[in-house]
């Protein structure tokens, strides 16, 4: 349930005699904005009681989520930080990586304004088509605009939403760079760890989730959203001029992705559900 959802009153009643573990990826519990605006004093009170009295544990997707919860509420229950997970049977690196003379960029996710689709358009129009290729995978409000955009650019293509993890893994492995220019809130960034598992380098804006997964300039690149297109174009030039060791960065991505393998994440979940020390 999203923070400040007014249905908390009914949920507390239903779960009154149950052991509750609450999972959240919302990173801004100390701010004045939430998925549900203006919840009202009664709803605020119900959430306070829920978090401070009802739950056995809280599982947060990021350390920032944990920090702001502790800053805002007097929570007695243990709080764990558990990221999302990937299945290495599907998200694994290619056996061999060709030394291409161009860079293949990929976007995977919702086709919406706040995901920075138009920032990628700027990048496409500012890079040489001979040395860059772009693929959009997903669906959303801007899908028709993406289709129209790609029809007039020979180095750009659109793939409709892919439901199969196996097929998605194959798409990742055929690319070099994942672009994630989120303009608002990115609580975690599932596509980042999927890409890393396949040896694809993530390039993102400086949102909370990506900043906790990526070590900048080691296993990915993090840029301010105000200058994201310019920085990506600069990175492209460095890659083409071999001023960036893209192969070494890939290896760091693969190593980092192992922290999010199913077996590793399952161990932390077991601690949270059993009440072991965090």
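Sequence proposed for the structure above (278 residues):
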């Amino acid at each position: 349930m999203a923070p400040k959802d007014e249905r908390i009153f009914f949920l507390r009643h239903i779960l009154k005699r149950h052991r509750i573990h609450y999972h959240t990826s919302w990173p801004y519990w100390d701010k004045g904005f939430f998925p549900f605006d203006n919840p009202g004093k009664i709803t605020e009170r119900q959430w306070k009681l829920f978090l401070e009295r009802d739950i056995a544990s809280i599982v947060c997707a990021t350390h920032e989520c944990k920090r702001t919860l502790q800053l805002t509420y007097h929570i007695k229950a243990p709080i764990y930080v558990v990221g999302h997970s990937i299945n290495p049977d599907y998200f694994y690196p290619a056996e061999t990586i060709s030394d291409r003379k161009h860079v293949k960029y990929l976007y995977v996710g919702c086709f919406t304004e706040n995901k920075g689709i138009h920032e990628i358009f700027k990048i496409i129009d500012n890079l040489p088509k001979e040395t860059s290729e772009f693929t959009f995978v997903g669906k959303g409000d801007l899908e028709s605009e993406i289709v129209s955009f790609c029809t007039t650019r020979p180095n750009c293509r659109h793939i409709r939403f892919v439901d199969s993890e196996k097929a998605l893994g194959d798409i990742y492995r055929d690319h070099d760079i994942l672009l994630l220019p989120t303009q608002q809130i990115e609580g975690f960034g599932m596509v980042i760890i999927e890409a890393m598992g396949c040896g694809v380098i993530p390039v993102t804006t400086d949102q909370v989730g990506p900043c906790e997964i990526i070590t900048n300039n080691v296993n990915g690149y993090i840029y301010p959203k105000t200058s994201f297109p310019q920085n990506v174009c600069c990175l492209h030039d460095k890659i083409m001029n071999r001023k960036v060791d893209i192969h070494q960065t890939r290896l760091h991505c693969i190593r980092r992705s192992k922290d999010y393998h199913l077996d590793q994440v399952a161990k932390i979940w077991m601690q949270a559900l059993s009440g072991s020390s965090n």
